[in-house]
Amino acid sequence: MFRKILIANRGEIALRIIWACRELGIKTVAVYSTADADSLHVKFADEDVCIGPAPNRESYLNVSAVISAAEITGAEAIHPGYGFLAESAHFAEVSRECGLTFIGPGPEVIRRMGDKAEALRTAIEAGVPTLPGSGGVVQDEEHAQRVARSIGYPVLIKASAGGGGRGMRIVSKPEDLGRLFDAARQEAEAAFGVADVYLEKYLPEPRHVEFQILGDTQGNLVHLFERECSIQRRHQKLLEESPSPALDAGLRARMAAAALKAAGAVQYVNAGTVEFLLDTSGEFYFIEMNTRIQVEHPVTEMVTGIDLIKEQIRIAAGEPISFTQQEVTVSGHAIECRINAEDPVTFAPCPGKIRSFHLPGGPGIRVDTACYAEAMVPPYYDSMIAKVVAHGNTRGEAILRMRRALESFVVEGISTNVPLQQRIVADEDFVRARLSTRFMERFLPAEKRPAAG
Amino acid sequence: MDPKELRELIEIISRSEFVTFELEREGFRLRLVKGNSAPSAVVSAYAPAPAPGPSLPNTEAAASAPIEPAKALPAEPGIVDLPSPIVGTFYRTPSPDAPPFVEVGSRVKKGHVLGVVEAMKLMNEIESEIDAEVVEICIASGQPVEYGQVLFRLRPTL
Q1: Residue B113 sits in a domain of what CATH number?
Q2: With an 8 Å Cβ cutoff, are B2 and A59 in contact?
Q3: How many other CB atoms sit within 10 Å of the CB of residue A177?
Q4: Per residue of chain A (453 residues), what is the pLDDT tens digit?
Q5: Which of B4, B89, B147 faces A50 most closely, judged by CB atoms?
Q6: What topology does CATH give the domain A4-103?
Q7: Separation between Cα atoms, residue B17 and residue B13, nearest integer Å
Q8: Is A292 a known active-site residue?
């Protein structure tokens, strides 16, 4: 096992990894930008190294600075968390060359599954269902028109290197295709440096259901069931839950088998997530695999009782997964609400100084956060300030616990989306589990109506 | 001794009444001598060489390098701090056997190399941005530095 791990991240996930290391008896090194000098991950790590100024590119995304920090502190492994360098094959490669263990899959797998067109090809070869589409990069508009005709409108244009909804366009009729194809390519180029896009069938009311996977270096591969993350705004998840209310035992088993097939195709090692779109008909389609720990991992931890970060570290140290597939069971229901420092109506980010801060607690509530009273939420990074997770014996109990948790979550000094989350968990469609990735679309206009009179 | 421990120790000593402080552990010896703006002395050596690249100059050469935490000292008027632009390991010499780039009291022109910071096996030269006299070398050769940590204090010359 490692003696010292460097955490190449900030905020709640950096703290989450510190807690796991504490429990495993591993020393921790925090890295931080000058904007984060007073952050809790710096305070609670055993050592800390300032790696650069506030902008990401010069600090948290600065490969050389992170590696140097590991070298001067004698860290043996690096946990990248999520975001920043978590899915950088280059960073995983450099870590390895410098004799540091990257806690995640190897650079080859990150590269293969990080490229969406390549990931889709891998899934198809493994016999995992995928959305009908171009099956690879679409070179020009004429090619796009041909593909769109064959799969039928509406179609979705997506960036090969994409994520977070950038470089993505829905096209409902042929005459819009040319314009939107160019727009998606330009956006992809600006966001990822690669203009490549591909085309696939667009499902009008899909649910987002993903499976948590763990693989070890001995070749064991297990799944930890699913999370439903249909509640999204602009492809950014807002609320996640496990288990998905849309799955029965049969469908769950079929989707889990497909997820294992996709991960098995690349001999997946460490934690990963296989994402599917689930159509109203019960058909499901592989969309991508995330080669990192995810923001919403706590809902899986709450229902399975398995600590995913500790498993990641053990696996990276060469140990086998500490349980078998048969030992993974789901107990009750968990829901996570992402709390962002943003205006609950306009969604504009709202950085600033937190004046007072009170966390919810009580039975079944877990809050992952790095915020505190008097903390600054810097404007340079992600606006997520906390994750509130509610666990109950049933989905109904989890919802009730989430409602009272949100009521007692007090943040003063900055605006948060707590009021928005309260409206979501009080919504009738949510309570009846009538979900799709268009939930927020339906929900927000409905919220506007009373305001308009 | 890890860098954090060392920093904390130096901070405690610099605030104390002690003028000299010596610590000996297995394979490790540390000697701190306090001075004002005059060259003070620090002897610091890891038993196994801590890192590849230029090895530590001998203890005599390092004797003029105080490694007090620069930020803890009050800024003297007219003195310019030169912070490290990157994380890495600081070296005062271009190679293990070579003499230091500068000593306290050296007069340098703008662009003169004062030291190097090694990051991922690359030597990054630290240049003076002004014509100046070296007043203080804040870090001992071979020691880790953070981004923004003060390496040199310079008095601008006309």
Answers
A1: 2.40.50.100
A2: no
A3: 22
A4: 999 999 999 999 999 999 999 999 999 999 999 999 999 999 999 999 999 999 999 999 999 999 999 999 999 999 999 999 999 999 999 999 999 999 999 999 999 999 988 998 999 999 999 988 887 899 899 999 999 999 989 999 999 887 667 788 999 999 999 999 999 999 988 888 889 999 989 998 999 999 999 999 999 999 999 999 999 998 899 999 999 999 999 999 999 999 999 999 999 999 999 999 999 989 999 999 999 999 999 999 999 999 999 999 999 999 999 999 999 999 999 999 999 999 988 888 999 999 999 999 999 999 999 999 999 999 999 999 999 999 999 999 999 999 999 999 999 999 999 999 999 999 999 999 999 999 998 766 544 444 333
A5: B147
A6: Rossmann fold (3.40.50)
A7: 8
A8: yes
pTM value > 0.90: no
CATH fold for domain A132-201: Dna Ligase; domain 1 (3.30.1490)
CATH code of the domain made up of A207-452: 3.30.470.20
Q: Which residues contact A323 (CB under 8 A, 6 or more apart)?
A: A222, A306
**Conformational region of residue A25, where left means phi above 0, alpha means psi within -120 to 50, and beta covers everything else:** left
Number of domains present in the structure of chain B: 1
Handedness of CA A94, A96, A101, A107 (dihedral sign): positive
Question: Is this complex scored with an ipTM above 0.85?
Answer: no
Query: With an 8 Å Cβ cutoff, are B87 and A51 in contact?
Result: yes
In a mutational test of the B interface, the residue from A72, A78, A90, A100 whose CB has the highest number of chain B CBs within 10 Å is A72
Residue pair A40/A66 in contact (Cβ under 8 Å)? The answer is: no
Q: Is the separation of the CB atoms in A278 and A258 below 8 Å?
A: no
